[in-house]
Amino acid sequence: MSTLAANAPGAAGGGLADVAASEATLRRFLHGLPGVDQVGLESRAATLGTRSIKTTAKAFAIDLAISMIDLTTLEGADTVGKVRSLCAKGLSPDPSDRSTPRVAAICVYPDMVATAKEALRGSGVQVASVATAFPSGRAGLPVKLADTAEAVAAGADEIDMVIDRGAFLSGRYLEVFETIGAVKAACERPDGTSAHLKVIFETGELQTYDNVRRASWLAMIAGADFIKTSTGKVAVNATPPVTLLMLEAVRDFRAATGVQIGVKPAGGIRTTKDAMKYLVMVNETLGDDWLSPHWFRFGASSLLNDLLMQRQKLSTGRYSGPDYVTVD
Ligand SMILES: O=C[C@H](O)COP(=O)(O)O
């Protein structure tokens, strides 16, 4: 067991409830996590990024990456028509090749959930909705809960909530913990099922790797089903080192508690080459257990197009013309 796992809640007599018993116990636990070795982390991420993938494995990896995409539109100018056409693309990414997998989910604002749900009905493609005053997370709890409830009532399968970085960076960990717990409760449906909860850290605003590690453990203890890097709305979004750190956190959390949590890097992932680097990191850090859309997602608006172009290049030996993929 790693040092992290040994320190973790659930290990050696610790308990989840004990860790969050008070601001002081939560702070003691989060600040007791081992400091991140920045040089080591960045060097591991860089090394994994240089691994090459052979052609047959690449074809498999491209299809896997497509199936892991949360195809996203989160613009103020989103319209019903745009969301419907994004759903059509997610359902049939390459109409000329029916062997192309579907994406995992379509990710939209709460007011677009009903439109996406209708367009995807019966397909198995999930509807994910950002919530809790995305992307800033700056609103009172009642507003965040109402935002979540609206999305769940409209049929969202997954909720992507943002943490309040101001509260986190000020050390108000218990407030962040309790907000995640309350949003998790708001994900419950009247029939007893629950929308899956992804917790977005906005790692580009968390300032240090130690904070990313703390946020990861905080969210996992609070009940996140997934931990997600970024909103895609700030200057620095998903990066390989931050994602590797989060992959290591879910690995250690499972070792300590037996609970498996998913990971979603999001924002700025646009090329097949980038996606392959992330899949190598998942494979080398976590292995097969996480190599599925159930446990790993890419939050991305334009990655799909590049994957489709590379997929066609692999099967035909040439790139398609400019009309082959739609430009979002
Ligand atoms: O969660 C997904 C992001 O908002 C999409 O970011 P992107 O447009 O950089 O791919």
From TrEMBL:
Reaction(s) catalysed by this chain's protein: 2-deoxy-D-ribose 5-phosphate = D-glyceraldehyde 3-phosphate + acetaldehyde
GO biological process, one term: deoxyribonucleotide catabolic process
Top-level taxonomy: Bacteria, Bacillati, Actinomycetota, Actinomycetes, Kitasatosporales
Family as reported in the entry's similarity comment: Belongs to the DeoC/FbaB aldolase family. DeoC type 2 subfamily.
EC number: 4.1.2.4
Descriptive protein name: Deoxyribose-phosphate aldolase
GO MF terms held by the record: deoxyribose-phosphate aldolase activity
Pathway terms, separated by semicolons: Carbohydrate degradation; 2-deoxy-D-ribose 1-phosphate degradation; D-glyceraldehyde 3-phosphate and acetaldehyde from 2-deoxy-alpha-D-ribose 1-phosphate: step 2/2
Domain of life: Bacteria
Keywords: Lyase, Schiff base
Listed Gene3D superfamilies: Aldolase class I
Organism: Kitasatospora cineracea
GO cellular component, one term: cytoplasm
Enzyme category, top tier: lyase
